[in-house]
Amino acid sequence: MKFREMLAVALEGLRVNKLRSALTMLGMIIGVMFVIIIVTMGQSLNKQVEQEVEGLGANSFTLVPIANDNGQQGKLTLDDCRLLESSIDSIEFVVPFKYLTNTAVFETVRNKKNNMLIGTSPDYMKVSGLGFVEGRFFNNAENQIGRRVIVIDQNLAEELFGKGNTAVGKTLRVNHIPFQVCGVTKPEAAVMGMQQSLTCIPVKTLMGMADDEKVQQAVIKVKSKEHLESATKQSVAILELRHAVKEGYIAQTNEQMMEEFSSILTVITSVFGALAGVALLVGGIGIMNIMLVSVTERTREIGVRAAMGARRRDILMQFLVEAAVISALGGSIGMLLGIGIGAVISLALNMPVIVSFGTMLAAFAFSSAIGIVFGLYPANRAARLNPIDALRYE
Predict the structure, then answer these.
(1) Residue 164 in 3-state DSSP?
(2) How far apart are CA 6 and CA 185, in angstroms?
(3) Domain coordinates of the chain in residue numbers?
(4) CA–CA gap between residue 319 and residue 321 (Å, rounded)
(5) Alpha carbon distance 356, 39 (integer Å)
(6) What pLDDT is stored for residue 193 in this prediction?
(7) Strand pairing partners for 250?
């Protein structure tokens, strides 16, 4: 029997036993669907974070003070930032970041909302790529005198002042302190559907509010990528000497941050992918079970074929093709559902939709292989039936 005829017989069997075939394919559909969804979500999240990191530039790094093994805490101040900028020739500029320990309360006569408050310098615009809806970012003079001006994003502006209303020039209170809105930016992309509205004020203003001159981190831009490694080492060495603390700082380039995140994401994706793989194995067991039932039901048919000259190899191939068709069809349906659901979830979470054709082909091939592997025993059992006993079977 030719392969085309075997395929036709297999498809006819699916058509005749629609419900049984659908239930048999269900495990394969669910397994492949979840594998595709997990991989799609992982790649989409990885791509979004990569875009965020790339926005900071390849020739920059983040400096963060930490506590060492002896409990000594590294420190970072505006004076430290100025020292690094002036003493290391390869550094172009240093952007300090200070955050309040708790979220701040933003309120107007119309509404009230809790949100993170960031204190930074005007150089933040050089690494952020922010786009403005209206107004501007605060300038160096406003930062130096600690003026109470604030930059908010469009989402927060609409919540506090109403949709369609101009926010620039108006006053809002942050922890009961009045601030004048000087600019409204376009909303930043959400990560996994979680989004904090951007709110920036001069770092010196935030230091006055918090009564604390320390900053939590600094983004340092160097003049060229070739100077990146030397600038990170020099920055850490200067601060350790200045504050008399060893191993009190972490300096990470954007590439290192991306690699670390990708490694964590790969582990998470692998774990969930393995769990989804269990469903594929369950689907394979279901295929084996239904093929054994099919062998029993078609014992007399097998005997007739053998009596008419069908070889054992032909009977073996017929049942293997039927198992592979069920598995491949279930894998294809699961693949389409996984792509669709993964795309919908990514769009709902404002993430780029990444569809990996390599993963699709691998999932399809794996599901077909499972059908062949789990269909091998029933097919071999059918091929080994004694033709005379099979013809006598009722």
Answers:
(1) coil
(2) 63
(3) 3-52+260-392, 75-244
(4) 5
(5) 8
(6) 42
(7) 64
